[in-house]
TrEMBL record, chain A:
UniProt keyword list: Cell membrane, Membrane, Transmembrane, Transmembrane helix, Transport
Compartments in which it is found: Cell membrane
Residue ranges of every copy of the ABC transmembrane type-1 domain listed in the record: 62-280
Organism this protein belongs to: Paenibacillus methanolicus
Annotated protein name in UniProt: Phosphate transport system permease protein PstA
Membrane topology: Multi-pass membrane protein
NCBIfam families documented for this protein: 3a0107s02c (TIGR00974)
From TrEMBL, chain B:
Protein name according to UniProt: Phosphate transport system ATP-binding protein
Gene3D superfamilies (UniProt xref): P-loop containing nucleotide triphosphate hydrolases (3.40.50.300)
GO MF annotation list: ATP binding; ATP hydrolysis activity; phosphate transmembrane transporter activity
Keywords: ATP-binding, Cell membrane, Membrane, Nucleotide-binding, Phosphate transport, Translocase, Transport
Topology relative to the membrane: Peripheral membrane protein
Limits of the ABC transporter domain: 11-252
Length: 295, 257
């Protein structure tokens, strides 16, 4: 086989595999949406689930997922930004930084069920927080934080050295240079990365089974006092998220329309994650245009 | 070697040695840089011009593994002594880089950046600083109606003058220019050279250039470097008409470099 035919064969094989992957993805997406879309309605999105009757919704679960996302991000963003900035701008390259980086890599590649069990042990039992949104948020932080650190670190490293030097040469301190020149330049990349990370949090189930729990109290959507046990805003109540709900009704749902509910909920989940992804792309482009604007 | 008796020396460099790790980048460099005049550093690539320039505002501090021996005094004060605050030093010794590097902000914000972060917040005061600095950098007439526009919309030459304005806005005494025209077209280059001529009445300018004609055209004093050593420095006219060292003569007559 000469080089030319080898090249042709390789091209065909690669295109074939790429095509198969795209087809599988599209098929999966199409299947989920086809099965679920017809079931989505305003009522479905807002009403509470039913245990044995048909016609239940996913309202509390959707709310739980969003609220958990916000909680997780509230913990992850400041920590991740801080650590990322430290790692990229202050830490001297050496043994310590390298081992921190290694830990970060390992953490982010942990299987989520392991993180879930770790969360059950440490946050739920040892720290005594119990099955709660807060425990769930901490568990999600375990693999979201490394991602956030890496996103920040890379975004900061991507800032042109000339920009940093220009600011330092004006007699500005390192901190002022970071906050007023480097962070604004790195921001589009950080935000895009953060939204993508958020998509992952939104779809996570395994890590939440044993931390945020598999049930919600009867939420009272008129009670917005974060301290009362039935308030949706109480971070210390157990909370079943959308992804966990799908898993649960699929495996042990008693309602006669459990199949449809799971399908509808899956479609909602997939659509939301897609929204995050497209949102991140759109936002990245928007920020890029804004920063290089030649109005 | 005797410094040309142009004006009072503002910067005195005494037996300066600089090492990047084990690499000896500056060897026993001594010179005096006169106040309110233009000093040009010339020499082939890699001979240490930028390195010396960056010791003057301590930008080399950021590079891990650099070591410095000897003394640099600006206005009589040793800039490497323990008491010196690097940020104050850099305010007094401004820098313009080879590639125009305005921030991705508006023209106004680029110039106001330094003063603002150094604590000036009055709108009027900032307006005034921006205008004066842009005027000093010969850019005001071209941009006065577009101050809110992105600095990146300017041409390369305008961007470089904006960077000069940005440096002037924090009221330095010294302006370091590292091949500030090498990325520009001939007309923009000429503008910057004229600008340097005007600025030297108020600032002490040290410029690195690859272009010997530029050094001959604009500078009052020229320093010729080779392999980290100062071969010769003298009043520009003298250095170009009657070089004392054979290597200088070879270089300026284009026999190497
Ligand atoms: N950060 C660094 N680490 C190690 N060596 C360096 C570093 N920066 C510069 N050097 C070396 O020091 C020497 C002088 O570099 P410098 O940049 O000062 O030269 P230059 O005269 O400005 O050259 P050019 O005209 O190409 O800009 C070169 O040999 C260069 O390779
Ligand atoms: Mg150089």
């Amino acid at each position: 086989m000469n080089a030319k035919t080898a090249d042709k064969v390789a091209t065909v094989v690669i295109c074939l595999f790429a095509g198969i992957i795209v087809l599988v993805l599209l098929g999966l997406l199409g299947f989920i949406l086809f099965r679920g879309l017809s079931h989505i309605s305003w009522d479905f999105l807002t009403s509470a689930p039913e245990t044995i009757k048909a016609g239940g919704g996913i309202g509390p679960q959707l709310f739980n997922s969003l609220f958990l996302l916000v909680l997780t991000m509230l913990i992850t963003i400041p920590l991740g930004l801080g650590a990322g900035i430290y790692m990229s701008q202050y830490a001297k390259p050496g043994k310590v930084t390298n081992s921190i980086r290694l830990v970060v890599e390992v953490l982010s590649s942990f299987p989520s069920i392991v993180v879930g069990l770790f969360g059950l042990l440490v946050f739920v039992n040892i720290m005594g927080i119990g099955f709660s949104l807060f425990s769930g948020a901490l568990a999600l932080t375990v693999f979201n934080l490394p991602l956030m650190v890496r996103i920040t670190e890379q975004a900061m490293a991507g800032v042109p050295r000339e920009q940093k030097e220009a600011s330092l040469a004006l007699g500005l301190s390192r901190w002022k240079t970071i906050t007023s020149v480097m962070l604004p330049i790195a921001m589009p990349a950080i935000i895009t990365g953060t939204i993508l990370a958020a998509g992952r949090v939104f779809g996570e189930a395994a890590a939440l089974l044993f931390t945020a729990g598999m049930s919600s109290p009867r939420l009272d959507f008129t009670d917005w006092n974060p301290l009362s046990p039935f308030s949706p805003l109480n971070p210390f109540r157990p909370a079943e998220t959308l992804a966990v709900h799908i898993w649960k009704i699929n495996s042990e749902g008693l309602a006669p329309d459990a199949g449809e509910i799971a399908a509808g909920a899956s479609a909602v989940l997939v659509l939301t994650v897609l929204l995050f992804n497209f949102g991140a792309r759109w936002f990245g482009r928007f920020m890029h245009r804004k920063f290089t604007a030649t109005r | 070697m005797q410094a040309p008796a142009h004006t009072r020396a503002l910067i005195e460099i005494d037996k300066l040695n600089l090492y990047y790790g084990t690499f000896h980048a500056l060897k026993n460099v001594s010179m005096e840089i006169p106040e309110k005049a233009i000093t040009a550093f010339i020499g082939p690539s890699g001979c240490g011009k930028s390195t010396l320039l960056r010791t003057l505002n301590r930008m080399n501090d950021m590079i891990a593994g650099t070591r410095i021996e000897g003394k640099i005094a600006i206005g009589g004060a040793d800039i490497y002594s323990k008491e010196v605050d690097v940020e104050t030093l850099r305010k007094k010794v401004g820098m313009v880089f080879q590639q125009p590097n305005p921030f991705p902000k508006s023209i106004y914000d680029n110039v106001a950046y330094g003063p603002r972060l150094h604590g000036i917040s009055g709108r009027k005061q900032l307006d005034e600083i921006v205008e004066t600095s842009l005027r000093s950098a010969a850019l005001w007439e071209e941009v006065k109606d577009y101050l809110k526009r992105s600095a990146l919309s300017l041409s390369g030459g305008q961007q470089q003058r904006l960077c000069i304005a940005r440096a002037l806005a924090v009221e330095p005494d010294v302006l370091l220019m590292d091949e500030a025209t090498s990325a520009l077209d001939p007309i923009s280059t000429l503008k910057i050279e004229e600008l340097a001529q005007e600025l030297k009445d108020r600032y002490t300018i040290v410029m690195v250039t690859h272009n010997m004609h530029q050094a001959a055209r604009v500078s009052n004093q020229t320093v010729f470097f080779l392999n980290g050593e100062v071969v010769e420095y003298a009043e520009t006219e003298k250095l170009f008409s009657t070089p004392r060292d054979q290597r200088t003569e070879d270089y300026i007559s284009g026999r190497f470099g």
